[in-house]
Queue: 2 jobs
Job 1
Amino acid sequence: MINKKVICLLCLTFIVMSLQFSYSDDWYDDYGGYYRVYDVKSGDRLFETARDVTRGDQYLSGDNKMYKVVRVNTSSKIAYAEFIEDITLPEIDELAFESIVFALRNNIGLENFLVQDEDRRVGIYCTHTAESYTPTDGSESIEDGGGILKVAESLKESFEGHGVEAIFDNTSHVPHDSGAYKRSRRTAVQLMRDNGINTLIDVHRDATPAEAYLTELNGEPASKVRLVIGRNNQNFKANEEMAWKIKSVADKMHPELIKDIFYAQGGYNQDLTPNAMLVEMGTYEHTRERAEKSTEFLSEALTTALYGGTFTDQKDGEKEEVKPQKESNAGSGTGIAALLAIIGGGGIAFLFLSSGGKEWRSKVSNFKDEFNSFLGRRKKK
């Protein structure tokens, strides 16, 4: 009987100690598997994503309709979402915006029309450095460095063409597993610390069929871009505002550029700064050149949204102060709940192994009586 108790306690201790290593933002299954999300009322397909979909995730469609995921079947990878509301994106200052469009159309130089003169610095990195584009790179994943790195480099060069200092860190974070975001977090922190950066862009590509991402921009083949916001981080509202501003500008500049915005369960290191964004540059089924072409237009939209003074709350060069963020407790509620569930389950297992079948049921029954009595006393207070 003593051996059973010892074994049970050791197992419970191991589970609790390993819990902290089990969390991840998300990771893809084998290629070819992806979620399909439908409107729960009409049955129309809303979107597809290779990221994990969970209840509570939200989705802003290309026409600015907000949906919330209400049901998920992880086996079939089918989910359903309900319509919540129509969203009005941040209002653009037309005079400031037109001056920027004039500069772009006449090759005058966007940097000459930006309201923010200083601190125009962006940090770029790739959490999933092996991601690639099969038609161009020959594989969907290349451990030594995927095509996504070339897309990120193209984004860097496009930023620099608009007077924005862009620093791209191509540090490898392979493998593509549940620890990738923890490894890339070190890269993101170093980018911020070493370069005085408060804007971070994590460059990815999706793993769904190509059709939904294919588009043309200025008559040239390109890919649409999905913005991804992590719901489990303290900067969620600021990250959302940033995404809305990017989409507001892009919808006027290049209506086919921003595909949609997905509010996923993870944190994606966006707790590090209010100006953090994850971008999905198309998908692995189309050519890398399409994604590289889109970086030209994405850099225009990002530069304008971040530094152009193009919103009614940014007149006269006013910009929001980026304050240092405290260490995030994102996901702590989920972790605590999981921990309590494991401890509770382990306690029941311990009772069963350390007592006879009848005796453990008696102990559980007594515990329920005591717990109900405790709740009764609490309600009377």
Job 2
Amino acid sequence: MPCKKYVFIRKFIERDGKLVLISLGKEIGPLNVSFCINDVAVGERRLNLSIIQNVAVTCATEIDPKETVFGYCMIVSVIFLAMTVAIYSSFSNLRDLFGKSIISYCGSMAIALALLAIIKLMAYSDMSWCAVRGFLAYFFLISSFFWSNAISIQILLCSRAPALFSAKSSFLWYSLYAWGCPAVLTICMAIVNFHPGDHAKPGLGLNHCWFANESQRWYYMYSVMSVLIILNMCIYVYCATLVCQKPFSSAHIKEMRYKLWLMIRLLVLMGLFWIFEMISTFTEAHIVWTILDVFNTLQGFLMFVVLVVLRPRVIKTIHQRGLFFCMSGIVEKCLAVVDDAEDECIVHTEVAMTDK
């Protein structure tokens, strides 16, 4: 069985000439893959011993050069998302309800992209760890979309009236929503994945670390993303209608406009490129879709631009701490001509992470 790279499966049985995996005491399969059974030496480093073990050997999925490019783009995104998290976490005036939600969103996306980059760039040899990486990537990726929806809900509530609860208690409720729902979805998907039967399984850890085809992605991932993106769009349209029809004071109008513009940028970054990726599953491969996929994998850099570079409040905070060094003069001139609408907004939910 000639292959460039191999996968060694230790827990398996052979039934009627087909491979059946054993995971958590349950049978998975039979799998429609070519394989052979061989004895390999498994080393024990601490005892300096080699144990001969019977394993199933099958071909690892070859890495597409295009997927390699996507993997490195994801690493770039992870770096910029980590920088965004570090900046928002370092300054108390940025750790309001919105800021803590941004930290959670960027952190979730960073972990998801890091795991997906590992899946794309590294050949797998242990299906158990492969499944763990796949389910963790799914959990954090879906969590980032729930956090985007939580941010949209916050903007909607802040644009209408002061918060009824303290920012601390509100963040706990948002956290329960944005972390709890993905956890439930991930657990349900794991049950479906490892339950014996011929139903449509996600396939994570079943000779693949990630969803093997478009139908699996639509069943378990794109469907959830689509619902959340549509909800975010509805919130934006509703808020835009409020601005156009309701007679607010000038200060309130300015606050609403700032929040709406922020929603537009977040909606584009969090949803537009994913929508293009979903559309591409119904069409043939084309260079346009590849370019859009590259932008999607670079959304961490785009998020950094919107949430740090283009947000005067963040730049002003960094400048006041003297962290721009030799660029302080240029930054000060730019801040002098920029209209910081946030400073004129009435913020109802600002609170630090600590109770000090």
